[in-house]
UniProtKB/TrEMBL annotation:
Residues 303-362 form the Multidrug resistance protein MdtA-like C-terminal permuted SH3 domain. The keyword Transport applies. InterPro entries: MdtA-like_BSH (IPR058625), MdtA-like_C (IPR058627), MdtA-like_HH (IPR058624), RND_pump_MFP (IPR006143). Residues 117-189 form a coiled coil. Its main location: other. This is Efflux RND transporter periplasmic adaptor subunit. Belongs to the membrane fusion protein (MFP) (TC 8.A.1) family. Keywords: Coiled coil, Transport. Residues 117-186 form the Multidrug resistance protein MdtA-like alpha-helical hairpin domain. Residues 81-212 form the Multidrug resistance protein MdtA-like barrel-sandwich hybrid domain. It is found in: Cell envelope. Residues 1-20 are annotated as: Disordered.
Amino acid sequence: MIRFPARQPLPQQHLPGRSSPKRFISATAMALMLPLVACQEAKPPAAEGRPVGVTRVEAGAVASDVRLSGEIQAEKSVGLAFRINGRVTERSVNVGDRVTAGQVVARLDPTLERNELTAAQAALQAARGELNTARNTFARQDRLMTQGFTTRPRFDQALRAQETAQAAVENAEARVELARDRLAFTELRAGVSGIVTARSIEPGEVVQPGQVVITMAREEGRDAVFQVPARLLEDHAGTYRVRVALADNPAVTAAGTVREVATQADPGTRAFPVKVSLINPPEAMRLGSTVTGVLEISTPAIISIPAGALTQQGSTPAVWVVDPATSTVSLRNIDVLRFDPDRVIVVHGLEPGDLVVTAGIQALHPGQRVRQLPTPAGASAGPA
């Protein structure tokens, strides 16, 4: 057998500008491993919270301005009427006239009352004559009784006659006073100073006792009277402040306080008359002037939040509340007193200082981390 010598490996030749296969594989592996090493060394970025609008809950009085239209009326009005019946012969005042206390504003025909006074005075004179006669008779019987020249029955009869005559004189004097009063009642006088606001008589008319013929507004004070709907009063149990201004000249203003709220609605308007007592009203606010009033209605301290913060959990109203320590949200049930156009009045479920989400509530879930957006200047969840 012929044996051939083992073949020696040829020396590897390296071409200029080319790498060996081993070095090529090693470089490729390192290139692939570098990103992995970099990923292992880099820390994962912290997850940012969902941006939401947040506001801090504040407690206070909820106030709302209600604009109404009304008129100026007298705080106190007086109706003048004759005490007797008769035919009117004179009316000396008209609507708008200023009247002083004691001034005559109307008169009745006094003929009948003068005749009654004349008759009463004549009856008084006759009664006084009878009294003089009775007194003389009694004086004579008294002297005779002392001397023993008369009897006891005659003495007693003279005494009774004197007493009867005395009573007749007193009765006649009373009738004279009554006739004088009736004559004085034919003149209608104002008991207080004021301004005539209404009249219902003309000369020649016949009036009855107690029939109001002239109405006067006393000068002590003025009211602005407004017709307020029931819905504006039924939910408000607080205080009322009113700013009143003339409708044709808003620069003329006055402050006032609610003096009286009617317990029964007006049959025509179905609204409740509210009387506002004006404080130092200007002279331009005359009786009957049309005014506009801004009724500031305030309630006791409660919590209100923007309407956009309201959601619900099942069938119960709820809001998203932010935990300031962890910046996470939780859903909290609330009790709502009422729903206003842009706010919700809350009675239970929130406390002053709570952070409530007002924008971005659609995609929140319990425990989610949130990031507060900058709050616009003046924004608040407090009372409106």
